[in-house]
Amino acid sequence: MKKYAIDYSHSTIGFSVRHMMISQIHGTFESYHAELAVSDIVQIQDAKISFSLIVASVSTKNFDRDVHLVSPDFFDADVYPKIHFESTYIEKLENNKFAIHGDLTIKNITKAVVFTTVYIGSSMNPWAQEVHGFQSRSKIDRRDFNLVYNALLETGGVLISDEIDIVVDLEINLL
């Protein structure tokens, strides 16, 4: 197995959620650690993948909202400082697509999730390193992880959707 490094300056772990049933709020985790080991970076079925996100690094580009997200109403970062993902198995779908199955832990609650992943391709950077690109997407129900804060709207909807979209864009290179 070969180990790969994440290019943190060209990678993003983000999420989006419907707000007031009419708009989409986007956020990222600015601090995280990832490990990736695989025999063949193009055919990743044997890969071992893990991520740890620092909850306090959440950023939605709105200070008050970010403070609320790390509070006990949501992530409770003082008690649960990290979000963790560990792959369990990977299946080949078609062409350059894969389903990465794994365990996602938020607030000490672990649930099985699947990330639909596309191998975007490779390129040589200006320092003669081969760089590979991946994009992964998943959906979770935030209630499964005890992220239950919400408010009812006069229109009959809710302030925050229960469904969260997760998007991971990675550039990686061989260590």
Automatic annotation (TrEMBL):
Domain spans labelled Lipid/polyisoprenoid-binding YceI-like: 3-173
The domain of life is Bacteria
InterPro entries linked: Lipid/polyisoprenoid-bd_YceI, TTHA0802/YceI-like_sf
Which Gene3D superfamilies does this chain map to? Lipid/polyisoprenoid-binding, YceI-like
PANTHER family per record: PROTEIN YCEI
Q: Which family, according to UniProt?
A: Belongs to the UPF0312 family.
Q: What is this protein called?
A: Lipid/polyisoprenoid-binding YceI-like domain-containing protein
Which taxonomic lineage does the organism of this UniProt entry have? Bacteria, Bacillati, Bacillota, Bacilli, Bacillales
